Amino acid sequence: MENSNILISGAGIGGPALAWWLRRYGFGVTVVEKAPGPRPGGQAIDFKGEDQLSVLRRMGILAEVRRRQTGGADVRIVDADGRSIAVMPGEFTGGDVEIRRGDLSEILYDESVAAGCAYVFGDSITSLTEAADGVHVTFERGAPRTFDLVVGADGIHSNVRRLAFGPERDFVRFLGYYYALAELPPGGSDGDGDGTGVMYNEPGRMVSVGGPKAPAFFVFASQELAYDRYDTEEMKRLIIDAYAGMGWRTPEILERVRQARDLHLDTISRVRAGRYARGRVALLGDAVSGNTLGGFGTGVAVVGAYVLAGELARADGDHHAAFRRYEEVMSPYAKVARSGGNAGGFLAPASRAGIWMRDQVFRRSLLLKMMIKMTDMFATNISLPDYPAPVDRGRRAAEPR
């Protein structure tokens, strides 16, 4: 088989899913991840439509995903006095199956390790140099190595895309909003106590607790900020500054944010990379088609992992043919992720009139049903190819289709 030694950057969702499929087809796989280990927690993510569920079923993990699913809780939208205005139903936020990102990452990591994939944590790629015999890769910490192919499954701020395709500004458009997720320490009232989250808005700002995304979830309008995405204390200060003077229970929530040990802050952005591959380097998931909080990223990444690995297996490792076919299959399907709306403007409208109009969607069942129907239509806009039967290198057999 050609190109049998593959490096994947990113151990979130798409990277381990791709690693599992590649190893099942007989490829040698190494995954490099900047974080010191698999990342726990994180927001709830969801899968929509039979195509996405079919990939989980073919991997043999759908039953475990269902066992750990969060249930798609409702979110109650309130005014400054805590009075209910509308309810964002779980079927709107949770898709067919909802699961915490950390739980899904753990499942995929365990399965890929059992299949024989190698992981290198606490390291990152510093250069990619393509040559006739492969891609020469240097790392921040590890010794240089040569791989046949490299895949960037490292998110909207993809390091691989920057090194192989060009600077981030050429591919990522900031949409004028930030979002933050925080694991709050004990001591406050989170949600309604029955699994229902509670959400409050002021123009350009939203805060919720106890909902499906995280114990505390923030979305706010802002100019682009300069900060270290790995400096938790700096990110806390930015959130506290952004929410200064906000009503409802926000001051109490911010006090608990000061004590949070796990916190994530990032832009709401859209990726338009154009091409899925260049030479021996390919992109997967948000690195090529991300749209933050758009509701399709995880499903598109998992389907993309199935297609990329399957095309490489079908082409017997010929990356020219496999990468071309991978783009042909995935580009139409991922269009909704690339070109979808701005979740920031929906979750944190810029005006009180905008907040009122957004709330009407959840008060009027016909509008809500139309939105859910459109979402379901986009999620099933692909005909999954059948690929060669994989070698049985993993713990689980595929579940019945």
From TrEMBL:
InterPro entries: FAD-bd (IPR002938), FAD/NAD-bd_sf (IPR036188), FAD_aromatic-hydroxylase (IPR051704)
Molecular function GO terms recorded: monooxygenase activity
Record domain FAD-binding: where: 5-314
Pfam families xrefs: FAD_binding_3
Domain of life: Bacteria
Keywords: Monooxygenase, Oxidoreductase
Signal peptide boundaries: none
Record-given protein name: FAD-dependent monooxygenase
